Amino acid sequence: MEKEILTIEEAADYLQIGKRSIYKLVKDGKIPGKKVLNKWRFEKESLREWVSKGEAEEI
Fold first, then answer.
1. Taking a C-beta distance cutoff of 8 angstroms, is the pair 25, 3 a contact?
2. What is the pTM (predicted TM-score) of this model?
3. What confidence score (pLDDT) does residue 54 get?
4. CA–CA separation, 45 vs 54, rounded Å?
5. CATH number at residue 35
6. Separation of alpha carbons 46 and 31, rounded Å
7. 5 phi and psi angles, rounded to 5 deg
8. How far is CA 33 from the centre of its chain?
9. Model confidence over 4-59: pLDDT tens digits?
10. What whole-number distance in Å separates Cα of residue 9 and Cα of residue 21?
11. Contact status, residue 7 vs residue 40, Cβ threshold 8 Å
12. What does the DSSP assignment read for 1-59?
C-alpha cells in the first residue's frame, strides 16, 4: 500500500530536492503542506498535482 501522507524527508525524497528547499517552499506558501502537531505533512497527490500543473517551474 502506497503512503498517502508524507513527512518533510519523504516529500523531499519524492520531489528529489533538499529538505531546506522544502522548508523554504512551504514557508513561502509555494508548496501545499500542513502542520500537524508542529510537524509538516504533505499529501502525495497534492505534490503530484503541484508538479503536474507546472507550479514547480515558477520557483
1. no
2. 0.83
3. 79
4. 14
5. 1.10.1660
6. 9
7. -110, 130
8. 6
9. 999 999 999 999 999 999 999 999 999 999 999 999 999 999 999 999 987 666 55
10. 11
11. yes
12. ---SEE-HHHHHHHHTS-HHHHHHHHHTT-S--EEETTEEEEEHHHHHHHHHTTGGGG-
Domain count within the chain = 1
Enter the C-alpha cell of residue 32.
Answer: 501545499
Length of the chain: 59
Spatial separation of the C-alpha atoms in residues 7 and 11, rounded to whole Å: 6
| The C-alpha cell that represents 7 in the structure block | 513527512
Question: Which domain covers residue 26, as residue numbers?
Answer: 5-58
The one-letter amino acid at 19? K
Q: How many CB atoms lie within 10 A of CB 14?
A: 16
